[in-house]
Amino acid sequence: LAERTSLAGVQHILLVLSGKGGVGKSTLSTELALALRNAGKKVGILDVDLCGPSIPRMLRVQDSAVHQCDSGWVPVFVGQDKAIALMSIGFLLERPDDAVVWRGPKKNALIKQFITDVAWGDLDFLIVDTPPGTSDEHISTVEALRPYQMLGAVLVTTPQ
Amino acid sequence: AEVAELRARLRAVRHTVLVLSGKGGVGKSTFSALLAHGLAADENKQVALLDIDICGPSIPKMMGLEGEQVHQSGSGWSPVYVEENLGVMSVGFLLSSPDDAVIWRGPKKNGLIKQFLRDVDWGEVDYLIVDTPPGTSDEHLSIVQYLNATHIDGAVIVTTPQEVSLQDVRKEINFCRKVKLPIIGVVENMSSFVCPKCKNESQIFPPTTGGAEKMCQNLNVSFLGKVPLDPQIGKSCDRGQSFLAEAPESPATLSYRNIIQRIEEYCEQHHLQEEKIM
To answer: Which CDD domains does this one have (chain A) (predicted)?
Structure first.
């Protein structure tokens, strides 16, 4: 039974995956979010790349901070119209160059929190940007999102 | 007892170099492969290349060893040899099919990395090069931990010029400092592109914040050099051939060779200093 949780107001969830690093997952996630916003949709981006979070800089909100509210963490809202909601570990670092040197279990715990404890509100699309690989972040993300309506995955590559 | 086992196995390794990034797709595996080829060009040197990217092992393909299997002997797992003096180990050799996904959580990955160090019979090695996946997580913590049984000369950190890469690389530099891993220096790949037809130079990944050189100045880290973007590099990697051998006249080859030489010099000096201390 899916209780009224932080993802209850999200219509579609889309994962952006690759396997390979540096092919443009974060770039695509960002452009996809912006295109959907321009088409009048309410969009959220969940950045589960804990070691190399790129989305905040791509949306020029790298200096923003997240706040707490009654229903959990408030995502960072991007732009004048605040039509893109973003959550990333980038916002939780004391300094932008701090390395997140965590083993799997700690990463998994934070990813679960990002999914269940963020007040996403009503969104048409939640785009989930992932790190390269097929490991802890990917397993945990898919497991935590399984109760919800997952639209699917977009896979990104380069030609070689 | 575990540490003693690793120490014993790695006793015959003279130099160990980790190739790190933080950012994916910047050329760590490419660099590791070429560093191995470059060092192994000296037939008197015994080189070992260990690929600890468990989810995305690129080394077998880049070294032309796809489809090879690992054999067991009385003294442990045998590396796969490209040349008599260049042996390779990767999870890629343990997969039944090259497209099999290795969907493992951290602890299982750590277990395999430990096996690679404990059970592979590398023999006497002058240079052990360790290629890593992007990030600062299980694989990186584990390899530093396990290699404390021997010593690590240092890390070579690879990046591309744009800020989105440097952002992750600064974190990697901080990781190295946190775990007290010496940094040999930073390599900037895909620096510029020279058109083979008109010879015009373009910056495909503009260094909007000054590139690796500026970052190294700011962080007081050695800058080892820039490597231009040569489409032949990717082709050679796809075909499992050494780019250095296939394109000896390329400016990229010259850059790589200079950087490899600097790494060798660092390691030799490091060795001399250690001997002095002892």
So the answer is: Mrp_NBP35
